[in-house]
Amino acid sequence: MPINGWDIQVAAVRGVIGKARATVEDLQAEETKLQNAVTSAACSANSPVILQALTDCYEDYLSRLLNSGTIRGDNACNSTSDAVNSYVRGDEEMAGNANRMAGESPAAGADSTGGGR
User: Whole-prediction pTM value?
Assistant: First the structure.
């Protein structure tokens, strides 16, 4: 199915990007809560073995997973924002070119309809 054109609703897309950024920030806040919960649970266990197991689980898996999600989320938001900005700049450039060309006189020898004789 061919795409006949592009029509991006810039304000709507920027709104979605803003919501996605907020979700990434929420993920960062949840990471802090999780780290505190792991520390609290480890201290409550009163066992060096459990303390080490919970610490290792957090550091070797949970923290890396959350960090990866945060980085991917940030990258997706930044890349999408860059693409939208490029789209807007392209629209502005095309509009400027159209305005400039509209002010130019027709080529010599052409009639008013642009067709020749």
Answer: 0.69
